[in-house]
Amino acid sequence: IVYLDSAAGTQMSLPVFQEIKPFLMDIYANPSSSYRFADIPKQAIKLARERCAKAINAEPEQIIFTSGATESNNLVMGQGVIISSKYEHPSMKIGFTADDIQLEINKLQRMGTNSIIVSHQFVNNETGTIFDVKRYADIAHASGCFFHTDATQAFSHIPIDVKDIDCDFLSLSGHKFHAPRGIGLLYVKAPDKFNSPIIGGGQERGLRSGTENTAGIVGLGKAMELYNYSPLANERMKTLKYTLLEHLKAKCPCEYRINAIDGLPTVDNIVNISFKRINGEALALLLDYQGYCVSQGSACHSASAEPSAVLKAINVPEDYIRGTIRVSFSKDNSVDEVISFVDCLAEKIKALQN
Ligand code: PLP
C-alpha cells in the first residue's frame, strides 16, 4: 500500500502506541476513583493535558478532551449563534454562512442577537489553504463576538499559538497527527464561562462528563509533543510536495490545475489536483487497484456524488471539477513513493483518455 491520504487520517506512530499500551490493558482503573491504583491514569491524564496545552501555548485548564474535532465543533455550537465561512467541514456547518463576516455580524447585531461566535477554519481540509485566522479573530472581537477556529488540518503543519491568534475556542482531532482515532480536544479560553451540554459525572471539571478515554488522552498528549510543527519536519513535506509537482509537470499527459482558495498559501502536506476532462472517481479507483490510497476530492465528501462545494465556491471549471483528487502526505511517506505514484497516475490518466 502507498498511503497518500493522511489528511483523512494517519497511522498511529510506534512511540505513541508504546506510550498508550499500558493503558489499553494493565492500567484500567477509572481515573476518578479514590484508591492509589487510580492515581496512575489520573497522573497520566494530567501530563497529557500539560503536553497538549504546551503544544498550542494554552494553559492546561483550558483543554477539554473530546472524541475529536466533530464533537469539539459541536460543543462550540452550543455556546452561541455561529457565523462561519462557506469552506467549513460539515461538522461546523450550522447557523449563518457568510461571504462577508462583518456584514453578517452587523445584520445579526441589528436583530439584537447576543453571543455571536465567528468560526473560521485554520486550514481547509480539501485544498490545504491556510487562512489568516488572526484577522478573523480581530474582526470578531472588534464587534464583541467570540472567535472559534477548526484547526484540525493545521496542527503539525503550521505553528499554532492560541494566545497569538487570540481565539476563544479551537478544535483538534488526534488521528490527523499519529494519535489514535476517537480522541481530540477543544481549547476554551474562558472555561469558567463554558456551557456544557453534556450532563453526567462531572469529568473534565464538569465541562465534558463521561469516563475519560485514558489511552486516547495519553496518546494525544504524546502525539502533540512529538509532532508539533517543526521547520525540519516540514522540510520533508516540502520535498514530497516539490517531487509531486515537478514529476507531475514532466509526466502528466493532460492539462491539470492545483487548487487553492483565493490564491492563499497552502500547507505542504495537502495537494488538490484537478485533471481536465478526467473522471476523478474512476481515476481514484484505478489507483486503488494498484495500491495507491488517495482521496477523490475530499474523504469528507466521498459519500456524496455531488462535486465538492468548496471547489465549486472557488470556481474550478466544470471540465476540471470532476477530475479532482486530493493527495496528502505524512512523515511516513518517501520520495520514491511519490515518484511511483505519479508514474502510475500518468499511466491511468492515459488509460482513461482512450
Ligand atoms: N474539521 C476538519 C477541518 C476536518 O478535516 C475533519 C476531518 O476530516 C473534522 C473536522 C472532523 O474530524 P473527526 O472526524 O476526527 O471528528
Structure description:
- With 354 residues, the protein is of the alpha/beta class.
- It has 2 domains: 14-226, Aspartate Aminotransferase, domain 2; 230-353, Aspartate Aminotransferase, domain 1, CATH 3.90.1150.10.
- 38% of the residues lie in helices and 13% in strands.
- The chain contains 12 helices and 12 strands.
- The strands form 3 sheets. A 7-stranded mixed sheet has the order 2-8-7-6-5-3-4, with helices on both faces. A 3-stranded antiparallel sheet has the order 9-10-12.
- The longest helix has 21 residues, at 231-251.
- The mean pLDDT is 95.
- Bound molecules: pyridoxal-5'-phosphate (PLP).
- Pyridoxal-5'-phosphate is lined by residues 68-70, 89, 91, 121, 125, 150, 152-153, 173, 175, 300.
How do the helices and strands line up, and which of them pair or pack?
Blueprint: E1 2-3, H1 14-24, H2 39-55, E2 63-66, H3 69-77, E3 81-84, E4 96-97, H4 101-110, E5 116-119, H5 133-142, E6 146-150, H6 162-165, E7 169-173, E8 184-188, H7 214-226, H8 231-251, E9 256-258, E10 270-275, H9 280-289, E11 292-293, H10 309-313, H11 318-321, E12 324-328, H12 335-353
Parallel strand pairs: 1-11, 3-4, 3-5, 5-6, 6-7
Antiparallel strand pairs: 2-8, 7-8, 9-10, 10-12
This protein binds pyridoxal-5'-phosphate (PLP).
